[in-house]
Design brief:
Structural class of chain A: mainly alpha
Radius of gyration of chain A: 24 Å
CATH superfamily of chain B: P-loop containing nucleotide triphosphate hydrolases
Largest sheet of chain B: 8 strands, mixed
CATH architecture of chain B: 3-Layer(aba) Sandwich
Number of helices of chain B: 12
Largest interface: A-C, 43 and 40 residues
Strand content of chain A: under 5%
Number of helices of chain A: 13
Order of helices and strands of chain B: EEEHEEHEHHHHEHEHEEHHEHEEH
Shape of chain B: globular
Helix content of chain A: over 70%
Radius of gyration of chain B: 21 Å
CATH class of chain B: Alpha Beta
Oligomer: heterotrimer
Distance between the termini of chain A: 10 Å
CATH topology of chain B: Rossmann fold
Distance between the termini of chain B: 38 Å
Chains: A mainly alpha (about 325), B alpha/beta (about 325), C mainly alpha (about 300)
Mean pLDDT of chain A: 82
Chain lengths: ~325, ~325, ~300
């Protein structure tokens, strides 16, 4: 088991490292001079040069990478070109919107997916199954930002139950803040939930075909007992793996959905910073997001080993 | 008073090409404590018969007839009633020990589960009993094995665990569906002897299913030979071997390779029964064996042969038993 | 009484109870396939929707009710009428014409993205499957690595680096399809490599490249084709998102995704403006997904053998 863990940890760290290098390199190629952004397009050359010197933009790439990394790992994320504020400050406010949104969406998606998927699998080829498959087929086909727009139309504009956008801040009270996140989370959760539901259904169906399920029934377990005690845990193995990948999609989805609902989260920040050529912000935020995804996948790997004892025996 | 009576059992599979007749009008009787073997090639319906006893057939299958156990027709019982019988009064072990155990539960959990389910024993009591059961089926160091997972055991050991699970509630009947087919030849004999000794010790009835007539002959008192979903010959083991009557059974017997004994009996080539097993959706109207039988006549292809009495308890379904005897 | 050619010793098995591996001629198999296809709901519905999409795109190349880029302020935000079947947008442009022309964009995205993804992905996957060892490790680790990045995120970065525009967005999406095809091809190719007829080919002295092209590739094609339809659908969704964010296709090229961002502020005045382009995307993607599902069921080698 320890060997397995060590191997996984090594892969995890290597991926993180590679991610930072790739992000750095991609942004190297990003056209646009940060100095000009700060000083304005008409700034005199001398001032631009001086700022280059000050920001260290003249040093070779490798040197700047090491410098960035050593600061990053210590939690010193640099100062934004556009806002002249430390990136950490920007992140703090925004993460408090994006992370709860992502978690809420994940929770809703799991709720939708498991209930629909397991129901469809246990009523295979009956009306319920066909209906759920049809609905989920629709669910995976609609763009999440369109669904977001429709939700705003229905529940904010027409019914008036929700605001059509914006975030009141956590100071306004947790329930009010969550209410503002509900529609966006629903938009995200519906699409992801549909994907996960189909996957849950097929994972459960596959597991139902296994011999040990027949053994369980031969022992005298009812359908329900067999499902809960034998099928679900085994079906969870592939499902949990997919959920890890889903989280990456979810984070990506927040970028778009935050736009629809005018939520000042990480997504908005990245988009604005890219158009502002604010390399510092983009670099740090993207790296952070990628790191979050890699960590989640690492946790999923560990969970995998916890659920499936076969993995603990050998080094996989 | 019989333990199990199968009467006119017919199992039909709903396939895209039409109904597949897996079993047709099968009848046999088993007394308490007796052993019965069902022999036949793959696809002859023996597994279907076994599964229909416990109601474990898939949804696209219809069963008619009667399977009488404990004054009830199992085919008309609800799933709830069947759940109380499975693993409790009637147990079944299957062919593939490698995949029949849940990989994420320990051996102990899987044995304890069936005991707490039917007897309501406490976990601690069940654990002690599980260790005893593992010892009974010949697993060494049972205390350690209890907390191990299936992948840590060999195929033969897993099959022993399956036997332990099946016998834990002391059922009246054990159904063993090809229990040694997927196990190493060297272990086969051990497993079979284990089954026989345990069945004798506990006074259980046994239905043993196999394609291997040799295996069956050592293990059971009665034999039902199946082909194409029907019983072609039934009788006691000694009756069938000393007075083999049906052409198909004769073919089976002659196919057992003989490499020892008198020179004149030794073979240089394996005997085979020419032809292929027909598809279940395209079974012939008359005798299912007619297109492969050396002595088949027009009558055979048109009319299903009735079960003809040869001796007390010995039946064969053939129109031309005299001709078959001549061969 | 008949004696068939094959005789085998008793006790030998062939599959499960209801199956017999029959040898049918190719034309019978094809006819059977077609018969199953006609009765397969997903395949038919998906096929119809996809054909519709392609036809609309082709037709719009030559004709649309109005010029989709023609501004006509007099008709701004007009409701459905004889002149504008679906109404007009905030600049008076005919919505139906824009929707029709937008199909071209969607088809192009699919073709470019799937083209890139398939050609590079399948090649990499086949190389990985035929050269076990460090080459395979390298390719597979790189693919795994790409999965760590939320695709949209790096697509956004790439487009920001290369500049906004339809083509760049399509290329970025295509790049993200590569690992999917690579993984799929490798997994399936590995399975084929260990099959007996390949071993026979190797024993007869055929080279790796030759075997890959002659034996491996044809046998994985069905899986690849199914994945291609699904990736086509995903590409349309991804491009719609990028265009919605403003970094995909640029005005005046009609694009369904960008339409949605343009009407976002106006949705209170005329909700239908938001419905049409979104519905167009959804129907196109749905059609392709259903087609992919249908193809998967029809081409699944396991199901074919069960006949």
């Amino acid at each position: 088991m320890t060997f397995f863990l060590i191997k996984r940890l090594a892969t995890f760290l290597a991926t993180l490292l590679a991610a930072t290098i790739v992000t750095f390199l991609v942004l190297e190629v990003l056209p646009g001079d940060p100095a000009l952004v700060i000083l304005g397009v008409d700034a005199p050359d001398a001032a631009v040069e001086a700022l280059h010197e000050k920001l260290g933009l003249n040093r070779p790439a490798a040197e700047r990478y090491v410098d960035w990394m050593s600061h990053f790992l210590r939690g010193e994320l640099g100062v934004s070109y556009t806002y002249s504020v430390p990136v950490t400050e920007l992140l703090q406010e925004r993460l408090l919107i994006t992370i709860p949104l992502a978690l809420l969406a994940m929770g809703l998606s799991v709720l939708i997916a498991f209930s629909l998927g397991i129901y469809a699998a246990s009523h295979h080829n009956q009306k319920g199954d066909v209906l759920i498959m049809g609905i989920s087929q629709l669910g995976i086909s609609i763009p999440n930002f369109w669904l977001a727009l429709l939700l705003i139309l229905l529940f904010a504009v027409n019914a008036g139950w929700f605001a059509s956008g914006g975030f009141p801040g956590w100071d306004a009270g947790p329930w009010i803040a969550l209410k503002a996140l509900l529609l966006p989370a629903l938009a995200l959760a519906t699409v992801q939930g549909a994907i996960l539901a189909r996957f849950t259904r097929s994972a459960v169906l596959e597991t139902l075909r296994e011999d040990y399920v027949r053994t369980a029934r031969a022992k005298g377990l009812t359908q329900r007992q067999t499902l809960w005690r034998h099928v679900l845990r085994n079906a969870m193995i592939p499902i949990v793996t997919v959920m890890g990948l889903q989280f990456a999609n979810l984070l990506a989805g927040t970028i778009v959905v935050e736009n629809v609902f005018s939520l000042p989260g990480i997504g908005r920040l990245i988009l604005q910073s890219i158009s502002n050529r604010d390399v510092v912000v983009v670099r740090d935020v993207v790296t952070l997001l990628v790191a979050m995804v890699v960590v989640i996948n690492f946790i999923v790997d560990i969970l995998y080993a916890v659920i499936d004892p076969r993995l603990r025996a050998k080094d996989v | 008073m019989t333990l199990l009576t199968v009467e006119d059992l017919t199992v039909t599979i709903d396939t895209i090409h039409g109904p597949g007749h897996a079993v047709r009008n099968l009848s046999f009787e088993l007394m308490p404590g007796n052993t019965l073997g069902i022999v036949g090639e793959s696809g002859c319906g023996k597994s279907m018969t076994a599964l229909s006893i416990l109601g474990l057939l898939p949804d696209n299958v219809t069963t008619t007839g009667g399977i009488y156990f404990d004054h009830r027709n199992l085919l008309t019982c609800s799933d709830q009633e069947l759940c109380q019988i499975r693993g409790n009064r009637i147990s079944m072990i299957f062919q593939e020990p490698m995949t029949s155990l849940n990989p994420v539960h320990t051996i102990g959990q899987q044995i304890i589960e069936i005991m707490t389910l039917h007897q309501g024993t406490s976990k601690t009591e069940a654990k002690i009993e599980a260790i005893r059961l593992l010892d009974m089926v010949g697993i060494r160091d049972p205390k350690a094995r209890i907390s191990q997972y299936p992948h840590q055991l060999s195929g033969g050991q897993r099959q022993r665990v399956m036997i332990a699970i099946a016998l834990s509630n002391k059922p009246d009947l054990l159904i063993a569906d090809e229990p040694t087919t997927a196990v190493d030849v060297t272990i086969q004999k051990q497993i079979l002897e284990l089954i026989r000794s345990l069945v004798n010790e506990l006074g259980m009835g046994l239905i043993l299913i196999s394609h291997d007539l040799g295996v069956i002959s050592n293990m059971v008192d009665q034999i039902v030979v199946m082909y194409g979903g029907t019983a072609v010959e039934t009788g006691t083991t000694s009756q069938i071997f000393s007075n083999v009557s049906h052409p198909y059974t004769q073919g089976l017997l002659s196919a057992i390779p003989r490499i020892s004994g008198h020179k004149s009996l030794r073979q240089t080539r394996l005997n085979t029964i020419p032809g292929v097993v027909p598809e279940l959706t395209e079974l012939p109207i008359g005798c299912t064996f007619s297109d492969r039988c050396a002595i088949a006549s027009n009558l055979c292809t048109k009319t299903p042969p009735p079960a003809t009495l040869i001796n007390v308890g010995h039946y064969a379904a053939c129109h031309h038993l005299e001709r078959a005897k001549g061969k | 009484m008949s004696e068939r050619e094959n005789s085998y010793p008793t006790g030998l098995a062939a599959g499960d109870a209801a199956v017999n591996l029959s040898q049918k001629s190719d034309s019978t198999t094809q006819r059977e396939l077609w018969r199953r296809a006609i009765h397969h709901r997903s395949f038919i519905v998906g096929g119809v929707l996809t054909i519709l999409l392609v036809m609309i795109a082709i037709v719009s190349l030559f004709w649309t009710p109005h010029d989709p880029t023609q501004i006509n302020i007099r008709h701004r935000l007009a409701g459905p009428s004889l002149e504008h079947w679906l109404g007009a947008d905030q600049f008076g442009r005919d919505i139906l014409s824009i929707i029709m022309a937008g199909a071209q964009n969607s088809i192009m995205v699919g073709v470019v993205a799937v083209g890139i993804g398939m050609s590079f992905g399948v090649t990499l996957g086949l190389i990985a499957a035929s050269n076990r060892g460090w080459v395979e490790e390298l390719i597979m680790r790189s693919c795994d690595f790409m999965y760590a990045f939320p695709a949209i995120l790096l697509a956004i970065l790439l487009v920001a680096t290369l500049g906004s525009g339809a083509i760049n967005a399509m290329v970025a999406i295509g790049i993200f399809a590569i690992p999917t095809f690579a993984r799929l091809s490798r997994a399936n190719a590995n399975a084929i490599w260990s099959r007996e007829f390949v071993l026979a080919a190797r024993a007869s002295g055929k080279g790796t490249a030759q075997i890959t092209v002659e034996h491996i590739l044809p046998n994985i094609m069905s899986v690849i084709v199914v994945q291609a339809t699904i990736e086509f659908a995903l590409a349309i969704l991804a491009e719609a998102a990028l265009s919605y964010l403003g970094i995909g296709s640029q005005p005046p090229t009609p694009s369904w995704g960008r339409m949605l961002s343009e009407v976002q502020t106006l949705v209170f005045l005329n909700p239908w403006l938001a419905v049409y382009p979104g519905a167009a995307i959804a129907l196109a993607v749905l059609g392709l997904n259903l087609l992919g599902d249908g193809l998967r069921d029809l081409l699944d080698p396991r199901l074919v053998r069960k006949r």
